[in-house]
Design a protein that fits this description.
412 residues, alpha/beta, eight-stranded parallel beta sheet, 15 helices, 13 strands, 44% helix, 17% strand
Length: 412
């Protein structure tokens, strides 16, 4: 079966683009807006609407396969590709990428994904924007599945030698700033991993000694025990602290390990994961720091886990953090890896080399990218999969839960 046409449409995402540089420089909240001048190239305001592009492959039998190009909330920051605006990148897809696929016989996913993910643009000499590679490879996977009349998860399992999961992958829900009301939503829905909690400011949210995190974890434990939706509800607590423990404890890794071990006792009987305990400002220092904290926790006999996030962005980064045992789990931020083939390989690499795989992404994705990634999750079986897009809990949880539920029902 051949691809006869490639059609693009501009879309919205489930969240926003935020100028991280301007926010760190002091831009202040005004409701849902930020007051201040943007500092990152391409931004016209500190916060602006998230944009996406749907890439649709029209097949010769009339079926339409599609994926969504999307980029992370903090685009243009930390070495990431620039702000992803539909009007700038639809012409690139139509002029440079569409001709590579129109008239082409649909072959394997891996072969079709490599066309866009591995080649360079003739106009820039660089690889294509991560968001373009992300969306086009989703369309490639869907096209192969439609040509074979099977599920996308089944295509992945066949090509990568895996088995599609016979049960739901644990869903990790993120609360954003509304960490109390949104935690209630998560508990009510029986979320397997919760709540994210967004502790990203030392004085306001963490406390000068970390006491605000301790109080929140104690509240969350008591809330789950009081309101649990079924008798054996046993969620994992996953708290994202955005490097703030490094600031509180002056990057004293032994003190950080002591603190996390203490949090573990407060969270009991629930298992604890702490994401991003430190941010060392560059990759190698981050690897060494997370490896040291992991060793310190294990020396104490603590079962709490730390999760790598900052400076672990690409497939190569995931490999380097895994080899160094820099943390117990790595977040695989799907849009940052470009083609979804890279996310597939990253999960499998983690699983084969003793690192917990967290198939993540961003609140700034779309329903389509979340659904396609649900197939990646079911075929590769990471330890957890992010409920996305958005920060409202209900919508993202619904999208990924329902897609995995459909996969399970159809395979029965």
């Amino acid at each position: 079966m051949k691809i006869t046409k490639v059609v693009c449409s501009a879309g919205k995402t489930g969240f926003f683009f935020d100028d991280q540089k301007a926010i760190k420089a002091g831009a202040k909240n005004d409701g849902n807006f930020y007051v201040g001048e943007p500092m990152t190239e391409g931004f016209t305001s500190v916060r602006q609407m998230g944009e996406s592009i749907s890439v649709m492959f029209v097949l010769e039998d009339g079926q339409v396969a599609f994926g969504d190009c999307a980029a992370v909330q903090y685009s243009g920051a930390g070495g990431r590709d620039p702000l992803f605006l539909a009007e700038n990148f639809i012409p690139v897809i139509e002029q440079e990428i569409a001709p590579l696929y129109v008239g082409r016989e649909i072959s394997s996913f891996r072969e079709m994904a490599d066309i866009v993910d591995k080649m360079t643009s003739p106009s820039t000499g660089k690889v294509y924007h991560t968001a373009i590679r992300y969306g086009v490879t989703q369309a490639c996977l869907d096209a192969v599945a439609k040509s074979k009349h099977c599920l996308m998860a089944e295509v992945i399992a066949e090509e990568y030698g895996t088995e599609v999961s016979s049960e739901m992958i644990p869903i990790f829900t993120q609360s954003g700033d509304d960490r109390y009301m949104n935690a209630d939503k998560m508990i009510m829905k029986g979320a397997a991993v919760l709540p994210h909690a967004l502790f990203n400011h030392v004085e306001e949210k963490v406390g000068l000694k970390g006491e605000k995190i301790e109080a929140y974890v104690e509240w969350l434990r008591n809330r789950v025990l009081e309101k649990k939706p079924f008798a054996d509800y046993n969620p994992i607590f996953h708290i994202d602290v955005y490097g703030t423990l490094g600031l509180v404890f002056n990057n004293n890794f032994e003190a950080i390990a002591d603190y996390i071990a203490g949090l573990e006792k407060i969270a009991a009987p629930f298992h604890l994961r702490v994401e991003g305990p430190v941010d060392m400002g560059e990759k190698q220092a981050q690897i060494e720091a997370l490896a040291a904290i992991r060793r310190a926790l294990e020396a104490r006999g603590a079962k709490a886990e730390i999760v790598a996030d900052e400076w672990c962005n690409t497939f190569e980064d995931v490999v380097d953090f895994t080899k160094a045992k820099a943390g117990h789990m790595a977040q695989i931020k799907t849009p940052d890896l470009g083609g979804i083939n890279n996310s597939i390989e990253a999960v499998l690499y983690c699983r084969e080399n003793g690192m917990g795989a967290y198939l993540g992404g961003t609140c700034n994705e779309t329903n389509r990218s979340a659904e396609v990634c649900a197939h990646v999750a079911m075929a590769t079986q990471p330890k957890q999969y992010l409920a996305k897009p958005g920060m409202g809990v209900d919508e993202g949880y619904m999208i990924v839960f329902n897609e995995m539920s459909r996969i399970l029902a159809l395979r029965k």
